[in-house]
């Protein structure tokens, strides 16, 4: 039995994860990786997120990232490692995270006791994450914890993000959703990325999107207008509940008071970052 209020872990994740994700929309990451010679935006993303795995090929990244077209991944991996090593990319990633958080949050928040508190709480939660069958989490867990609190917080957010994400992929497999079906059904909830963003960044084409929509309609999960049916809504809810269950350990370890406090602190940081323009305005939606 859980000792936490319903969905407390999910709410905490939803506050912490976007702060980690700010890096992937940041011009600071573009600048840092560009200085290494990685100029293509997709190559930069695959390198920055995948570097903890080492100099892996396209197969490992397609597997662990799940919803990218393998042809797109193979266009950049393993070639990107001949431009910059994983070690150089990881160092650049941390410099970019530093610059991004300082720019979005400001020096007062960066140096505040609340930032140090948030880092301590997030790291304590991550103590209960597990490595088995969680490759992206496990790879990041092998990296050292940065000394500065805001970077320690970002590192802990990466651990919690990838731990939940690895579990979510298991839930998607169990639900029988392939990569594009997962994207289409998530977008249909109104909370996922817009089709324009998915098609532009994940390497799929409109015909892939339409074909996946047709398969979902055939399963009774999507209606003719592209909205989730009752069965589709139930499936997406079940997916989130399964993901919550697989990701419960960090938040149970932190405890109800710690989870509530980490959620409160992370939301405050997130609101500040969002107001500073951390995310594209058209990122989320059905259109």
The helix-and-strand class reads: mainly alpha
General form: globular
Distance between the termini: 40 Å
Strand content: under 5%
Proportion of residues in helical segments: 55-70%
Task: Give a description of the structure.
This protein is mainly α. The protein is 68% helix and 0% strand. The chain is built from 15 helices and no strands. It has helices at residues 8-21, 27-35, 41-50, 58-65, 70-76, 86-105, 107-110, 113-126, 135-141, 149-175, 179-188, 195-202, 206-218, 230-246, 248-275. Helix 8 runs antiparallel to helix 15 (248-275) and helix 10 (149-175) crosses helix 14 (230-246). The mean pLDDT is 96.
List keywords for this structure.
globular, 15 helices, 287 residues, mainly alpha
Strand-helix topology:
Blueprint: H1 8-21, H2 27-35, H3 41-50, H4 58-65, H5 70-76, H6 86-105, H7 107-110, H8 113-126, H9 135-141, H10 149-175, H11 179-188, H12 195-202, H13 206-218, H14 230-246, H15 248-275
Helix pairs in contact: 1-10, 1-15, 2-6, 4-5, 8-10, 8-15, 9-10, 10-14, 11-13
Short synopsis of the structure:
The chain has 15 helices and no strands. With 287 residues, the protein is mostly helical.
């Amino acid at each position: 039995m859980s000792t936490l209020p319903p969905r407390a872990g999910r709410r905490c994740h939803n506050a912490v994860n976007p702060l980690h994700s700010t890096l992937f929309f940041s011009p600071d990451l573009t600048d840092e990786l560009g200085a290494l010679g990685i100029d293509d935006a997709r190559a930069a993303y695959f390198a920055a997120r995948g570097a903890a795995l080492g100099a892996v090929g396209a197969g490992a990244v397609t597997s662990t990232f799940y919803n990218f077209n393998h042809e797109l991944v193979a266009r950049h991996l393993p070639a990107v490692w001949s431009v910059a090593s994983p070690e150089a990319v990881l160092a650049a990633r941390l410099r970019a995270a530093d610059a991004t958080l300082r720019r979005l949050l400001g020096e007062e928040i960066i140096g505040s006791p609340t930032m140090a508190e948030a880092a301590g709480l997030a790291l304590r939660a991550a103590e209960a994450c597990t490595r088995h069958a969680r490759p992206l989490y496990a790879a990041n867990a092998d990296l050292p914890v940065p000394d500065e609190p805001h970077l320690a917080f970002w590192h802990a957010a990466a651990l919690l993000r990838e731990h939940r994400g690895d579990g979510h992929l298991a839930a998607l497999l169990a639900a029988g959703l392939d990569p594009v079906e997962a994207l289409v059904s998530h977008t249909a909830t109104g909370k996922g990325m817009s089709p324009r963003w998915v098609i532009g960044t994940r390497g799929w084409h409109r015909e892939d999107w339409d074909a996946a929509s047709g398969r979902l309609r055939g399963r009774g999960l999507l209606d003719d207008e592209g909205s989730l049916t009752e069965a589709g809504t139930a499936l997406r809810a079940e997916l989130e509940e399964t993901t919550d269950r697989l990701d419960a350990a960090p938040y149970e370890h932190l405890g109800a008071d710690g989870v509530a406090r980490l959620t409160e602190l992370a939301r405050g940081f997130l609101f500040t970052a969002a107001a500073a323009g951390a995310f594209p305005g058209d990122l989320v939606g059905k259109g």
